[in-house]
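Complex 246.
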Amino acid sequence: MFDLAGKVALITGANGGIPRATAALFRRLGAHLVLTDLDPAALDTFAAALPEAQARMVTARVDVTRRADVDDAVALAGREFGGIDILVTGAGLYVEQEVTAMSDDDWRRTIGVNLDGVFYTCRAAMPLLRRGGSVVNIASMAGHRGSVRHAHYAACKAAVLGFTRSLVHELSPRGVRANCVSPGIIATPMTEAIMAQNGAALIAATPMKRFGTPEEVASVIAFLASDAASFVTGETIHINGGIYMD
Ligand SMILES: NC(=O)c1ccc[n+]([C@@H]2O[C@H](COP(=O)([O-])OP(=O)(O)OC[C@H]3O[C@@H](n4cnc5c(N)ncnc54)[C@H](O)[C@@H]3O)[C@@H](O)[C@H]2O)c1
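Predicted structure with nicotinamide-adenine-dinucleotide bound:
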């Protein structure tokens, strides 16, 4: 598909549905991996199940809401691999709540993972990103059109779009690109509840009449991460079967 041989990719939320598919594809494409997530045992189990490959892989426990965790993981990437070529911010939290029911803590928790986490990760990794490198932030359809009972989540994802476009100005002089993917409804643990509650209506509203798969997001992330997208920056690619067209 695309060649990522010898590239170093750091992925947050790497034990999630979309990030797992991304890690597995990146490994097939030859990338070295720095996989990070909250639960180190679960992450190690996932990593151990990935196919044998020549490229190396390390894992680290990272809570993206904790700046020190993020800084440590980026430092690990620097020590192990000497730099980073690809950054994928996959950690995400999707809590169903109406605005009037959101406590200050609820709001902060969602902002902490979905927005602070992206900022901490990008800020820490930027000095280590090498020429030819690529940042792919995972936004969401929610950031474009809003999201029923997920206003905090939608606000973060819209902010990630603006943040990523702003990164372009700081990264371009260094030969690094920054883009987003905006998935629609993808079958992962994150969307199990919404699919169970409202799946038939969501499929009916989707021109392609199905949910997406994590692999269908991973392949677009791989494109943006690869040299095949070498003049693509500040862009957002929707992956949603036509349910929302910008
Ligand atoms: N599934 C979808 O339909 C969909 C749609 C649009 C965007 N997204 C985005 O894609 C990304 C991946 O989501 P997914 O669907 O694979 O969900 P998922 O729930 O399977 O994965 C999310 C991962 O983030 C990790 N995480 C949560 N809080 C964290 C924290 N504080 N620090 C570090 N890691 C943390 C979780 O442990 C989990 O492994 C998220 O950013 C999500 O918002 C998903």
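The domain at 8-239 is CATH 3.40.50.720 (Rossmann fold).
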